[in-house]
Amino acid sequence: MTRKSARGAAFGAFTLSLLAVLALAALPACDGDDGSGQRDAALGVDGRRDAPARDGATGDGDGAGSGSADSAGDGSGTSDGGGTADGSSAGDGGPSGDGAASGDGAASGDGAASGDGAASGDGAASGDGASGTPPGFAGATVVNTWSSQFPTRNAWAVLVHDPLRHVLFFHSGQPYTTTLGTDVGATWHFDGKVWTLRTLVVPQGQVAPTHAPAPRYRQSAVFDAARGVTVMFGGMTWIYPQLTRAESNDTWTWDGTTWTRHNPSKAPSARHSAAMVYDDTNKRVLLFGGVRASTNLHDLWAWDGSNWTDITPTIGTSPSYSPLRGVCYDSSRKRLVALLFNETWEYDANAWRLVATVGTPSAASRAAGAYDAARKRCVFYGIGSPWWQTWEWDGATWKQPSPGSTGPFLYPGNTHPHALTYDSDRQRVVAFADFGDLYSWDGSSWTRIHETVGPENQVVPPNIVADTARQKVVVVTSKPSTWEWTGSDGWVKRNVTTPYLWRAAMAFDSARQRTVLVGGTPTETWEWDGAAWKQITTADAPLGRSDAAMAFDVARKRMVLYGGSVGPAETWEYDGNNWQYVLVNANAGDRYRHRMAYDSVAKQVLLFGGGGGVSSSKNKSVYRYDAATLSWKPAPSAPHAHADPAVAYLDQHQTLLVAGGELGTQFSDALSSNSWSTLSPTRWLTDGVNWQATYVPWLDVVVALSANHIIPWVYYP
């Protein structure tokens, strides 16, 4: 299968409207859901809308024919388990397994011509994955790209509420790292529950795209209600491949699916940090001030959807210094309000005037502002010292609602990492703060509405597998705890007793539809069926060990376990009833902290890396398990050493992916057709160690987690 057709088939199976990230089925009622399945077509991890009633026969599933979501009709009819419970013959994957003709990806299922991703839907023009493009990426060609599941820590990003699509629009800014990551310049949506990555930029060092804004920070953005699009202007733009930065004056609009660059005959000069608001009285976008070449600007411009017009007052005085983003448009009083240090300025469509010099908050040059339409006042956040003070302006008086309380955490010495917008759907001002968290303001206090939650930080890598029967990613941590990830519901911590097995091995038995966990001293074997863990008593078992690796041999229907802290050159097999020691040659040598995966094309188990310190050649070596000859046979070694890396075999691309690990490298390597290639450098590889990964075939992505990094990362082949 070609890369293009493989991706098209996988992405067509679920036309969820990405991420975000970096989005699958609704959780069954046993996971704490009410079983209704109504999630308003929650935007998912890979640019596709939620499939219908996948996890319950009677639920009003996302996108079901009569659903109330804006994508009603996704998948329609009986696909994705409609009418029966999970795992039945009509369920995911159909009677013969994942990807069967009547299962996900079938002609009448999600991704069909009439589903999301079709000409009028989210994603590519002719359907998800068209022309090798993942859905939700607005025509971008995204190849070999890692991205986090939700926006990571950003400075000078923009956050805008889109009332037409009922989502928060987010365009990332400057990362808090020394390298430019692939999520810089990305476009995200947040539907109230799940972050969805809508566009990615090309990997670092390659040519910047022309179909989407180049990566930037300190840009300006606001929703244009008259034209139903988000308008974005200027900022500090990264220039590829040199990775230099320059102020820009380009104008872009985002319609929820596609970026469009405009070429007006006249435009504001190149700048960054300008304030932008929507003037709903005159149905136009206003842009004020900003900085160019360290010079503060105080000109005022209006955008009518086609052209910019300079409306800087010619009489009177203007603020002498740009207040950066500390502005809001008071629609009830028809005033543009600007907060600058201890000065309050207002513009009434004719002139600026200085008001309320007494009582104005001080040190407010880095504040972010938004108009609370329900409460009829401007809200400013990020004021004073400490930086996280909140103040409100009602047109006559400044007030600090809760002087003793603080809002979302901002990094000390705040360089303005936060952004504010008014969410008219929920009638709350919303803030994006520092580490990717979202908070809402009710007039008296801030409430976290989304946090970067997932499997807990730990000292060893979490075990992670793809349960293809239930289409959920299963994670077991060393806390211990069991987590599952579908995308549409984020990470869910299962309320079950989880076995504690130090640095255990785990794999999914697709024949018996069980996740198998092995480890401990003495060795314990446990199985997870999606509802509970059960310990399996066997007549024999490997001696107690840690740091072993395991993979399921699909062709032979048995687990293959190799190595570990005890018996580092031993091979064991488990058929669901008993363990059996297999006497094979010792070509693979002593192994621990290695990784294993199943090559679905060669129908062999692969073994990668492991062994001694960072200089060990074992960190680069690959072996294939030939059960017919009872031998481990060497395969071409990887070009770079990896210790405790993320490893996954991408069935639909016939490729072994190796990335990250304890070496601190920035390499992702791929083995395909018996030859290796080095993939693009990725920022995430320096953010954590002890990685584990799994391939998610129904989404055609790899999901990875590390021991000390709770943010999941997703790889788009």
How far apart, in Å, are the first and last alpha carbons? 14 Å
Derived structural class:
mainly beta
Q: How many beta strands in the DSSP annotation?
A: 51
Strand content: 35-45%
Please give a handful of descriptors for the protein shown.
2% helix; disordered N terminus; 5-stranded antiparallel beta sheet; single chain; mainly beta; 37% strand; 4-stranded antiparallel beta sheet; 717 residues; 51 strands
Characterization of this structure:
2% of the residues lie in helices and 37% in strands. The protein has 717 residues and is mainly β. A hairpin with a 4-residue loop joins strand 35 and strand 36. The longest helix is centred in the N-terminal third of the chain and has 11 residues, at 3-13. It is elongated, with a radius of gyration of 27 Å. The model is unreliable at 1-142 and 411-415 (pLDDT under 50).
List the helices and strands and how they pair.
Blueprint lengths: L2 H11 L131 E4 L5 E2 L2 E5 L4 E5 L2 E2 L11 E4 L4 E5 L16 E2 L2 E5 L4 E11 L4 E11 L4 E4 L12 E5 L4 E9 L2 E9 L4 E3 L16 E4 L4 E6 L2 E5 L4 E4 L12 E5 L4 E7 L5 E5 L4 E2 L19 E5 L4 E6 L3 E5 L4 E5 L12 E5 L4 E6 L3 E7 L2 E5 L10 E5 L4 E6 L4 E5 L4 E4 L12 E5 L4 E5 L8 E4 L4 E4 L12 E5 L4 E5 L13 E5 L4 E5 L10 E5 L4 E5 L8 E5 L2 E5 L11 E6 L4 E6 L2 E8 L1
Antiparallel strand pairs: 1-51, 2-5, 3-4, 4-6, 6-7, 8-10, 9-10, 10-11, 11-12, 13-14, 14-15, 15-16, 17-18, 18-19, 19-20, 21-22, 22-23, 23-24, 25-26, 26-27, 27-28, 29-30, 30-31, 31-32, 33-34, 34-35, 35-36, 37-38, 38-39, 39-40, 41-42, 42-43, 43-44, 45-46, 46-47, 47-48, 49-50, 50-51
